[in-house]
Amino acid sequence: MNLAFGGRSPGLRRSVLKIFRWAAILLLLAFALAPFLWMIRTALSPKGEAYQAHPGLLPSHVTLGNFQRVVTSSTNPFARQFLNTLLVSTLTAVLSLVLGLSGAYALARMRFRGRTASSVLILLIQLFPPVLLAIPLFVVLNRLHLSDSLIGLVIAYSTINVPFTVWVLRGYLESLPADMENAARVDGCTTFGVLYRIVVPVMTPALAAVGVLAFVNAWNEYLLALVLVNDPDKQVLGVGLTSYVSQFATDLPGLFAMATLTSLPVVLLFLFLQRRLVSGLSAGAVK
What CA dihedral angle connects 247, 251, 255 and 256, to 10 degrees? Predict the structure, then answer.
């Protein structure tokens, strides 16, 4: 066997390594998908079965009653929370892209005093956890009379996402040649014209990547939504999930049913844009 692996049978060695590689991939995939599959299993189970000491891998019988209960709930309106979350996440992604692209272009292409210090400061901002910004953001938005509104929530989420967006887009811009931009300026194009007519079409993969990440970060956020919004009509899905958890009991089937419905749009978005997401992030990380 040692001789075979030493060089007499390189094909056998490649086959064994391939088997180990696929085994490792399947093991990691099972580890990553197990919580999600168990969530779906509990959501499809009868209500009493979720509290068994030793539940089976599959429900005794599949039921959609938990999903129906979540969607038709009057105390925790899923449709309204879904629309609020969709609106806030979409506006956050758009605002983060607009501000992030402008800042990234200035740092990558323009020469001004404090350029290096600004880049380092933007990088350092990402080291602080968002929980530290909860109280300062509440104070600022409260003074602007935006503390209990979806617009205030969009501003808060954008504050967290813009530094990451600037850093990734800056790296992508620095990997692109500036010849086309210079040619456009010679033809009389303004800076904003160069940015949105020349740069944006070339940066589609990176813009899609950071846009999806900003959308997902806003979709999954809970703490700022809890602190900044008190109006029940303006609650988002992250806060709505907590309605199934009380001091003395937890409605596991309802909680997992709503969690499944909440996760589904994000999963579909990642599956639809996975190639652009990987290529955009890898290109933006070159610098």
Answer: 140
C-alpha 46/C-alpha 65 separation (Å) is: 8
Could you tell me which residues come within 8 angstroms of residue 49 by beta carbon, excluding any fewer than 6 positions away? 55, 59, 60
Structure confidence at residue 282 as a pLDDT band (50, 70, 90): low
CB-CB contact of 161 with 92 (8 Å) = yes
What's the whole-number mean pLDDT along residues 89-117?
A: 86
Asked if residues 248 and 165 have their Cβ atoms less than 8 Å apart, the reply is: no
Give the whole-angstrom CA distance, residue 171 versus residue 149. Answer: 34
What one-letter code names the amino acid at 113?
Answer: R
- DSSP character at residue 53: S
- Give the pLDDT confidence score for residue 92 in this predicted structure: 95
Tokens of 123: 């990088």
Q: Could you give the 3-state DSSP secondary structure of residue 245?
A: strand
**What does each C-alpha distance from 156 to 29, 63, 135, 146, 150 come to in angstroms?**
34, 39, 11, 10, 10
Sort 3 into a burial class: Cβ within 10 Å, 0-12 / 13-18 / 19+.
exposed
What pLDDT digit, counting tens, does each position of 231-269 carry? 888 999 999 998 888 878 788 888 899 999 999 888 888
**Radius of gyration of the chain from Cα atoms?**
24
For residue 278, what pLDDT band results from cuts at 50, 70 and 90?
A: low
The predicted model scores a pTM of: 0.82
| Cβ atoms of 174 and 113 closer than 8 Å | no
Would you give the DSSP letter of residue 250? Answer: B
- Half-sphere exposure for 274 (CA within 13 Å, toward CB): 6
Alpha helix ranges (H) inside 144-251: 150-174, 179-186, 191-193, 200-202, 204-220, 223-228, 237-240
- Residue whose tokens read 């009493």: 48
